[in-house]
Amino acid sequence: MNLFPNTSKIQHRTIPKYCMGRVIHTVVPSHVETVALLSKLSETKHHIEVKVDMDELDLTSAEAKATYKEIQDWVQEKYGFHVTNLNIAQVKQKHGIIERENYNKPKSPDSKQPGCPEEKVKVIEDALRHFQMI
User: Fold this and answer.
1) How far apart are CA 7 and CA 76, in angstroms?
2) How far apart are CA 112 and CA 61, in angstroms?
3) Which tens digits make up the pLDDT trace of 88-105?
4) In whole angstroms, what is the distance from residue 55 CA to residue 16 CA?
5) Where are the beta strands (DSSP E) in 1-134?
6) What does residue 27 show for φ and ψ, rounded to 5 degrees?
C-alpha cells in the first residue's frame, strides 16, 4: 500500500513508535530536512559588526529602474499629457529593455495593437534618459 501516491520516486521507510505500550509502525520519507539556528547575537560572546554606508554602494539594477507610474507622472508633469503602459512598453522594447512576460495576452494571434505615436515615443525616450534607463 502506497501512502504517498504522488511521491513514487522518494524512498520510504518504516519507523516503529511506541504509544501506550504498543508498537505502531509509521511510514515516512527517507530524506531529512533540518532547520538550524546559526547564531543568536544576544547569547553569543563573539560576533562581528559590519557597517555599510549606503552612499558608497552603486545603484542596484532594481533601484535604477523607474516604474511605469513614475514614468507616467514625470511625462504628465513635464509635458502635460498622459502616456499609457502600452506606449511605455513599446518604447522599452524598441530600446531592448527586457520586460517580464505579459500575462494579459490577446486571445487571437493575429490581433493588432495600436502603435505608439512618434511624439509620445520621443517623450518616453526623454523620460527613460531622465531615469538613466537608456
Assistant:
1) 55
2) 32
3) 999 998 998 877 777 777
4) 59
5) 12-19, 22-29
6) -95, 125
